[in-house]
Structures are given as structure tokens and as C-alpha cells.
ESAT-6-like protein (Crossiella cryophila), 101 residues
Amino acid sequence: MSGQIHGAVSGIAQTGTAATNIAQSIDGHRQRATAQADALSGAWEGQAKVSFDQAFDNWVTGVQRVVASLTELGENVTFASRTYEQQDQDSASGFAGLTSH
């Protein structure tokens, strides 16, 4: 049983790491897009610039929410996997103590 739980916990831990890595990747793309948008925005004037800036700001806000959610998910899943792993180890130790008496 312990091996089965360990395998599941390992998969959970990988999911937490993946969520964190995806969040970091998305944030990197956001940073590059922001730099490019800032460079373009300096050359624009008028209503097109205002409309673009508003749309881009909305996009950035959405991306930041996604990144924050993925980061939180990664942290929570990693915490859960560590908790399950500790419980599995505690249970295994408890059973080992029963069989040694």
C-alpha cells in the first residue's frame, strides 16, 4: 500500500511543480509582451493608442490573475503532496512498530 501512495504522491508533486513552471513561463511571456507593447506605444498617438492601452492593460490584468492562480495552485498541490507523504511515512512507521512487537 505504501508504494501505491508514494506513486500517487509523486504524481501530485509533479503536478504542483508543473503548475509553478507554467506560471513562471506565462509571466515571462507577459513581461516580453509588455516590453514590446511599451516600445510600440511610444510611437502611437490618438484614439488608437488609448484603445490599445486599455485593451492591453485588461490583458495584463487577466494574465496576472492566471499566473497568481497557477502559482497558488502549485503551492497548494506541493503542500498537499508533502502532507500525504508525511502521513504515509507516519503510517508505515506505525505498522512497522506493530509488526516488531
User: Anything to note?
Assistant: The two ends are 21 Å apart (CA to CA). Residues 22 and 28 are 10 Å apart (CA to CA). The helical segments are 2-41, 47-99.
